[in-house]
Amino acid sequence: MDGDVISRITLSTLGLSFGAAWIFREQFVNCFGGRLLNLHSTRLPQNRGGGGFSWQILNDNRLGCCLIHQVDTGVDTGPIVKYETHAIERSESDYSSSEF
Fold first, then answer.
1. CA 71 to CA 16: how far, in whole Å?
2. Angle at CA of residue 39, ends 80 and 10, nearest 5°
């Protein structure tokens, strides 16, 4: 992480991540003092990591989620701040491999 970026983080800085494709380094996470949040689009801990949507599709899981969690040094392991779940309805465009 660029030292210039880290030097700009203050006690009032709120960090927001929208599904980052990388793991934040401990030094970066610690700069925020618990104020680094991530928007995750599948349930946790069931769908941790970058493959959340893939596992949801493969398991035909029809429960969607919008979740905000505190970022720590693990992979999607920080405390959940807020979440909402919703049913994902089947549509006319849905198909299964047996329909080919």
1. 9
2. 85
Average pLDDT for 59-73 = 90
What is the tens place of the pLDDT at every residue in 16-25?
Answer: 999 788 889 9
Nearest to 30 by CA among 18, 13, 45, 48: 13
Residue 51, CB-side half-sphere exposure with 13 Å CA sphere: 5
Q: Does domain 10-19+36-88 have CATH number 3.40.50.170?
A: yes
Classify 39 as helix, strand or coil: strand
d(CA 86, CA 12): 33
Confidence (pTM) = 0.78
The CA distance from 30 to 40, in Å, is 20
Q: Specify the length of the chain in residues.
A: 100
